[in-house]
């Protein structure tokens, strides 16, 4: 493991231990500087990343995030068929305020469908969804208006909540900055790069400060730096009390997540296992 | 009210940035008028009106398909379905009215002798019908290509059908055709009143159709219960 | 030297040593480690030093500021607060009071 890997593992360990995102970043940066000045093997200088993260936590404590709060999203017995093909069978998920849930599974196993049902954009054949508070949804692609500027998107979404233009623009730009993007200016959405357009897509869904945020693999086209910012942003939202549901097929971030819902159906008999709510707490 | 106006404004902004659509809106009616200019005046005026109707319908179609992916998010953001379709219709009507002005002046500049009040009424009917017509097609057909083909078919039928025939009143732009007759020829007022009535009825029916499709597609689903924050 | 025992001793005094070094002026992590090594305390690893600095910062005995270095990366500079000076005086004199009799006993026994 070289220094970069060690630092990356340290970052993940700090996040998993719920160290505040900003404090974690300082700790990692300071360690990086120390290693750069003095050289040496991080395993010798600092010890294993798990151990150092533990020592840090003892020193500064964890983020004052709320203990998982009241239930914000409860989906029970969700079943959906397309003709003879059963896409979802009896899927269940409960997410509380201050938790991040990941919905995983192979391609085509109904992750997007499940999310759309939870968002109220599609009707299931059976099952119920209860949402407490405001709902935000970010589709996997699209979701933006080709010919409008980023600011105009913010105004449009803001007006739905009765937010005036100036504050809506400011809120949008601030949220965009969290993802490492300077919104504003006169660039039509269709002229933005794929990754930037996705940042706009994501920013629009967080703009109304929802209590439940449903994200359908929103990181298409993100570079590594933006991807890290994205998970930082999710942690921040989680700490602020939002219930977050992320559809993902990338399994390497599951240590930052409180609940995992695996929608992969059983293969042999074609019988579809009910969605299990597993995961770490 | 603010939500409705915001949607109308954004529809307008989008359209103004689509150069292709703008070109269409300006060139098509002009071309139709010029093609028939050597013929009898009534032909050229009717072509002009049909061109305006077709252009605005196409703009409405494109605006509707472009907004389709955005509408569910706007619902979640707090818009009701009527803000979305009424706002879009308003924006499209404004666009239609704005482009009607140069086409109102066109025959005037050309020295045509006709009842300009009638021309204005006919243009208004074309625009009024075209917006919800294009929106309805866009709402029912998934892709712009199919929608454009359907519009083309309707416009062709409109052009070829005998206005006095039995089926003619079923075509959407029959109203402006009737009024055009009163505008150009020295006929009785009946043409004007029939045309205006048809225009009003067709606009209302199409708008209701748009409302129905939007309300179904963007409806609050029964499986989802919303509770206040607790 | 027995590293376990050294570790135990360091755990007891490292924070006071750091406070003492910072009383001479502000400094950053790597510089402190080098100063401790040069003073003869021995090499202090980052994994030992930084948690101490974090704890001192959390208890308000030092404040920290990120600054661009003259050449090289940004560094986190620490300096003592008033509480830090007070803690240094109290802790320092307590240490000296503690260590004198220990030195006496051990000197007598080890030089026999």
Attribute tags:
B: 230 residues, mainly alpha, 77% helix, elongated, C: 112 residues, alpha+beta, 4 helices, 3 strands, 65% helix, 14% strand
Q: What does this protein look like?
A:
The complex is a heterotrimer of chains A (281), B (230) and C (112). Chain A is an alpha/beta fold. Chain A has helices at residues 3-16, 21-38, 42-45, 49-60, 111-119, 150-160, 165-178, 194-206, 224-239, and strands at residues 71-82, 85-96, 100-104, 126-132, 135-138, 212-216, 243-247, 259-262, 276-278. In chain A, the strands form two sheets. In chain A, strands 5-6-7-3-8-9 form a six-stranded mixed beta sheet, with helices on both faces. Chain A has a three-stranded antiparallel beta sheet with strand order 2-1-4, covered by helices on one side. In chain A, strand 1 (71-82) and strand 2 form a beta hairpin. In chain A, helix 1 packs antiparallel against helix 2, helix 1 (3-16) crosses helix 4 (49-60) and helix 6 crosses helix 7 (165-178). Chain B is an all-alpha fold and 230 residues long. Chain B is built from nine helices and one strand. Chain B is elongated, with a radius of gyration of 19 Å. The two termini of chain C are 21 Å apart. Chain C has four helices and three strands, in the order αβααββα. The mean pLDDT of chain C is 89. Chains in contact: A-B, A-C. At the A-B interface, helix 5, strand 4, strand 5 and helix 6 of A face helix 1, helix 4 and strand 1 of B. Strand 4 of chain A pairs parallel with strand 1 (224-227) of chain B, so a sheet runs across the interface.
């Amino acid at each position: 493991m070289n220094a970069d890997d060690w630092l990356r593992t340290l970052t993940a360990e700090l996040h998993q231990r719920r160290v505040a995102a900003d404090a974690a970043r300082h700790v990692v940066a300071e360690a990086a500087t120390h290693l750069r000045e003095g050289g040496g093997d991080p395993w010798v200088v600092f010890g294993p990343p798990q151990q150092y993260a533990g020592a840090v936590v003892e020193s500064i404590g964890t983020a004052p995030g709320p203990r998982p709060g009241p239930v914000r999203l409860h989906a029970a017995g969700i079943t959906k068929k397309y003709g003879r093909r059963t896409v979802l069978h009896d899927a269940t998920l409960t997410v509380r305020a201050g938790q991040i849930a990941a919905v995983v599974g192979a391609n085509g196993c109904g992750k997007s469908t499940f999310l759309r049902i939870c968002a109220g954009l599609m009707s299931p054949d059976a099952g119920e969804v209860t949402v407490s508070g405001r709902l935000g949804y970010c589709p996997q692609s699209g979701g933006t208006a080709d010919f409008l500027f980023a600011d105009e998107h913010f105004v449009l979404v803001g007006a739905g909540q009765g937010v005036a233009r100036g504050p809506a623009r400011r809120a949008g730009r601030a949220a965009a900055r969290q993802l490492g993007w300077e919104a504003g200016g006169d660039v039509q959405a269709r002229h933005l790069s794929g990754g930037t357009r996705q940042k706009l897509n994501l920013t629009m869904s967080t703009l109304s400060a929802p209590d439940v945020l449903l994200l359908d693999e929103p990181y298409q086209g993100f570079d590594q730096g933006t991807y890290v910012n994205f998970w930082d942003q999710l942690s921040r939202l989680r700490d602020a009390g939002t219930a977050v549901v992320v559809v993902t097929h990338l399994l390497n971030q599951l240590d930052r997540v409180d609940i995992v819902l695996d929608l992969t159906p059983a293969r042999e008999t074609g019988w579809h296992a009910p969605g299990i709510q597993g995961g770490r707490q | 009210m603010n939500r409705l106006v915001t949607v109308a404004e954004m529809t307008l902004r989008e359209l103004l940035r689509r150069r292709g659509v703008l070109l269409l809106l300006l060139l098509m009616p002009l071309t139709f008028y010029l093609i028939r200019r050597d013929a009898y005046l009534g032909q050229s005026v009717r072509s002009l009106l049909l061109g305006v109707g077709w252009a605005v319908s196409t703009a409405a179609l494109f605006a509707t398909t472009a907004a389709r992916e955005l509408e569910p998010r706007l619902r979640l953001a707090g818009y009701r379905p009527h803000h979305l379709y009424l706002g879009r219709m308003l924006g499209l009507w404004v666009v239609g009215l704005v482009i009607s002005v140069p086409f109102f002046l066109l025959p005037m500049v050309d020295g045509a002798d006709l009842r300009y009040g009638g021309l204005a009424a006919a243009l208004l009917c074309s625009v009024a019908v075209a917006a919800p017509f294009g929106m309805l097609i866009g709402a029912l057909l998934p892709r712009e290509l199919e929608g454009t083909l359907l519009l083309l078919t309707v416009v062709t039928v409109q052009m070829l059908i005998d206005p006095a025939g039995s089926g003619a009143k079923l075509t959407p732009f029959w109203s402006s055709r009737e009024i055009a007759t009163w505008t150009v020829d020295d006929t009785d007022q009946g043409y004007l009143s029939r045309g205006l009535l048809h225009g009003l009825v067709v606009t209302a029916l199409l708008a209701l159709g748009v409302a129905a499709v939007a309300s179904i597609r963007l409806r609050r689903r029964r499986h989802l219960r919303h509770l206040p924050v607790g | 030297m027995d590293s376990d025992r050294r570790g135990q001793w360091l755990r007891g005094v490292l924070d006071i040593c750091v406070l003492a070094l910072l009383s001479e002026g502000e400094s950053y992590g790597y510089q402190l480690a080098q100063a401790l090594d040069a003073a003869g305390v021995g090499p202090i690893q980052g994994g030992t030093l930084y948690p101490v600095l974090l704890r001192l910062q959390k208890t308000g005995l030092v404040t920290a500021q990120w600054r661009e270095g003259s050449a090289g990366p940004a560094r986190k500079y620490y300096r003592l607060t008033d509480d830090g000076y007070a803690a240094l005086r109290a802790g320092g004199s307590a240490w000296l009071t503690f260590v004198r009799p220990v030195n006496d006993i051990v000197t007598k026994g080890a030089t026999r």
